[in-house]
Amino acid sequence: MTGWVQQLIADGGYLGLFLLMFGETVFPPIPSEVIMSMAGLQAAKGTMLLPAAILAGTAGAMLGNIVWYLAARRLGLDRLRPLIERHGRWLTMDWAEVDRGERWFMRHGHLFVCIGRMLPTARSLVSVPAGLMRMRFLPFLLWSSVGTLGWSTMLAVGGWVLGTRFAAMEAWLGVASTVLLAVLGGFYIWRVLTWKPSR
């Protein structure tokens, strides 16, 4: 995984980094942990400037975030309702939960968007509820940018500090992402097995 990412960053520079982070956001299995850490490693070698690499990665990820936000906003809750009513068990929700979620999101949506951008695996999905709940675009853009910048900075600085010890960092981040994915998968299975529609 790291070989072709490193090559694309080395050949494409900031544009290659921008495109990799855009692709990572649209297609989450491409890991930002590897991409931004490799960018930090390139900065440590002197082939990139660390602040410019962080900004390029953040810009690419934000473009992907906006694509998901606009797609979810276009879908909207009204078009989602028949799907929830028909497949509520597998989605582990009913419309009463959507109503409660919408009220909660109106109060705490900015925190959800900002903090969610810094969670491995889940960070690419944050735009979907924001778009469905029709969060205003400027607050979405602001809080997404803050969270995405924080995540990109942490990874890039980590790659820059570790230098040749990048493999150790990649292994640690890989374990953390796998554990989080397992927890989310287990939680989903538990929800399916125990789900009952609201009365």
Approximate strand percentage: under 5%
Distance between the termini: 48 Å
Number of helices: 8
Class per helix and strand makeup? mainly alpha
Series of secondary-structure elements, N-terminal to C-terminal: HHHHHHHH
What does this protein structure show overall?
The chain has about 200 residues and is mainly alpha-helical. It is about 80% helix and about 0% strand. It has one domain (about 1-195). Helix 2 runs antiparallel to helix 3 (about 50-85). The chain is elongated, with a radius of gyration of 18 Å.
List keywords for this structure.
membrane; 8 helices; 0% strand; mainly alpha; transmembrane; transmembrane helix; 199 residues
Summarize the helices and strands and which ones pair or pack:
Blueprint: H1 2-26, H2 32-45, H3 50-86, H4 88-91, H5 95-116, H6 127-132, H7 137-162, H8 166-194
Transmembrane segments: 12-30, 50-71, 140-163, 169-190
Organism: Rhizorhabdus wittichii (strain DSM 6014 / CCUG 31198 / JCM 15750 / NBRC 105917 / EY 4224 / RW1) (Sphingomonas wittichii)
Keywords: Cell membrane, Membrane, Transmembrane, Transmembrane helix
In short:
This protein has 199 residues and is mainly α. Helix content is 82%, strand content 0%.
